[in-house]
Every structure is written in structure tokens, then in C-alpha cells.
Amino acid sequence: MSRTYKATGINLKSMPMGESDRLLTILTREFGLIRAVAMGSRKHNSRLGGRSELFVVNDLLIAKGRSLDKVAQAETLESYPRLGQDLKKLIASQYLAELCLGQALSDQPQEELFCLLNEHLGRLERSPASQVLPLLTHAVFQLLILAGVAPQVHVCCITRQALALDYTNCDWRIGFSIPAGGTVTLASLERLIASHPSPRQRQGVASTAASIARQVVPASSPPSTSLHPTGEPNQTSSHSPRLHPAGLNPVGLNMRLNAAELMLLQQLAAVELPTPSQLLAQLQTSMAPHNTLESVWQSVERTLRFYAQYHLDRPIRSAAFIDACFDTID
Prior knowledge:
By secondary structure, the chain is an alpha+beta fold. It has helices spanning about 85-105, 110-125, 130-145, 185-195, 200-215, 260-265, 275-285, 295-310, 320-325; strands at about 5-15, 20-30, 30-40, 55-65, 70-80, 175, 180-185, 255-260. The chain is built from nine helices and eight strands. A hairpin with a 4-residue loop joins β6 and β7 (about 180-185).
């Protein structure tokens, strides 16, 4: 029986090990997630040094070990060096890596996930700084589609009724329920807010509630107004979370979205996003005078972030830096 195997993989996580080694978590096309030691990769003249960096795609020869496999050879196929040269791009890339780590399987081919991650990392690397947050949010939605848990954004999840949209009214609102799986009518939203979470819902968020609760906005950031669960102006201080963390309050699992936020959510299901100028032309009539396209993207990202954490049942630790890097609401 062969003691080696070949794989094509991208490094998603790297930890120092011993005096000069690295323990890599690699997403491979052929075998899903694998963990392997890159021996001596932290030495100054190591051939594996650059090949063991984050987001480097390698053709790998892996030697099987008793407890951990070892990287015997690595030839780089693709890398994204500019991701590490921009803080926003780096954090966005780590965000996507965490989502992939949460949904990737081991010992099973992960061709679609591997290709989707590489596609969106490439888009992030090539993008201007102003487009990092929209591209990150788009990538998150696409990963949720692949995982089979993307939110419904075109009909009510409960009644299956089509949403009666009014994009010309900046005061228009629609419900959004994280446990229900997406958009709901306002009548359904009121019933959800009034009801208590089911045992399944409580069990689904118990393991992540404490971690999510620690993801608060830095004290220098202003409070949010668009994601308050009741749709009323948020009266919490800047030391409080922007959105009630899932599991701490049943009301926090349900919120109201305005027309601009819903329109952007609906755009995320497409393979490509419209250009910023196209989006702005569509959103002008539905945005409140004090809002900007950037602030709407920030609200949508937060909604999707808490949705992903709930349905993947794990916190996104990189999200602790998202608000500090992309805060535009004023």
C-alpha cells in the first residue's frame, strides 16, 4: 500500500509547530480538508517556506504518518500575494477561509468549494479597496448557496408569498428571520418575535452564543440603526453589539430590512455583482438621504454574518475585525 498520495490544495490555516515546522490545514480538491506538517518550513532557506504561506495553491506530494501526514513536495500553482499587502483584503480572505473550514469535509472531494474559494480570492486580490466589502459579502452568500443554507430573499419563508416590494419608499420594510431561513412578511415577523425559540433553535445556537456575544463593535464605532430587530432606531450604546447575538435573545434572531438592503441581498444570488454605478442607480430611490451605498453594504454583511454563524453553528472569529476595518455608518 502506497505511503504517499498527491493532491492539489490551498493553505487555509497555518500554525507553528516545534522549532521550525508548520502545521497546515489544507483544502484539497481530491480529499477535502487535510492536516499536514511542512517540515522545516520556518527555516530561512526552506524550499517549503513560501509554499506553506496562507492562500498559496500547491501541487502536493503528501507522505502518510501515524498521527500527522507530512508535506514531502510542493510546487506552487497559484498565490495571492496582494491579499497580505492590504489589511481589508487580508481580513476578508481570512473570513472566507473560516467559512470554508466550517463547511468543508475531510476524506471527500471538495472540487466545487475549492474552485469557488479560489475564484473569490482572485476577485478580492484584483479589486480596489472600495469593493472589498461587496465582494466579501457576495462570496459569503455564494458559499452559503454551496452549503445549501443560503437565505431566501425573494419570497416569504413561512407563507411562500411573493414579497410586495416598494423600492421607491425609503421607509418600506420587510422581515428577516435567521431561524426561518430568510425574508418573511411583517405579519409573520411579528408572530416570530412574539413567540419563543423552539428547542431545536435553542440547541442550534447554544454552542456559539458565547463566542458571538464577544464580537462587539469597538468603542469608537457609532451605533447601528438599520439592523435593530424591531425596525426602530437602535438605542444601544456604541459599546453594545450591532445586532443582538444569536441565542442570547429570541428577538435578536429576527429583524427588519429596508428596500435597499433587500435589493442588495437579492443581487448576491447572481454569479456576478453589478457595477457600483449600476447598483447606486437602482438604489437611489430606496435609500434614506443619510445612507450611502457603503453603509448599506455594511448592514447587509452584518445580516449575512449572523445568519452564517447561526446556520453553520460556529462563530466567524475574523468578524471581530470587520467592523473596525469597514465601519462607514454615521
